[in-house]
Amino acid sequence: MEVLPAWAPAVGFTLLPHAGGFLGSNITKREIPTWYETLQKPSWCPPNWVFAPVWGTLYTSMGYGSYLVWKELGGFNEKSVVPLGLYAGNLALNWAWTPIFFGAHKMGWGLVTLLLTTGTATATTASWYNINKTAAYLMVPYLAWLSLASALNYRIWKDNRNKKKPE
Questions:
Q1: Tens digit of each residue's pLDDT (9 = 90 or more) over 65-80
Q2: Is 90 in contact with 120 (CB distance < 8 Å)?
Q3: SS3 158
Q4: Concatenated DSSP letters for 78-147?
Q5: How far is CA 53 from CA 11, 47, 81, 121, in A?
Q6: What distance in Å separates the CA atoms of residue 30 and residue 153, rounded to the nearest whole number?
Q7: What are the Cα distances from residue 143, in Å, to 8, 27, 148?
Q8: CB contact burial 19-46 (16+ within 10 A = b; e otherwise)
């Protein structure tokens, strides 16, 4: 007798990245009108409404990719430690960015976190490629978005670092 239905791991892995996104969205929603809207942003900054559907799509894609790797390697075992460990580290860094950037208003540390996130996402993608090419390809849009996010974070930090914090 199976404890879980066969589809449960696919759903669980796919939804897992959304957990941090959901928790971070509470901080973001609070800080957009009171802080983020006051910042100088480049003309190429996407409108605020774009971020939620993009992140939802990216989280779903990378979550399903992690499921494919887990399944291909036969679950959590010695072979999956590196590829899924890199992914777990990437998720932790990804989830940390919102409280750092939006919550603490630490734009420079946000950039450092994003660069580390991009590095771990790249390492994750590379480690997944020889295990399951589809999983690796599912990470490519995320890598592209992280590049844009890093450039945007840099510009916001550069253009606003001398701005006084509201009391």
A1: 999 999 999 999 999 9
A2: yes
A3: helix
A4: GGGHHHHHHHHHHHHHHHHHHIIIIIS--HHHHHHHHHHHHHHHHHHHHHHHTT-HHHHHHHHHHHHHHH
A5: 19, 12, 31, 20
A6: 19
A7: 27, 24, 9
A8: ebbeebbebbeebeeeebeeeeeeeeee
Which residue type does 162 have?
Answer: N
Which of 37, 28, 17 is closest to 110 using CA atoms? 28
pTM of this prediction? Answer: 0.93
The confidence score (pLDDT) of residue 163 equals 73
93 in Cβ contact with 124 (< 8 Å): no
Residue 150 token pair? 């890093």
What's the rounded mean pLDDT across residues 47-53? 96
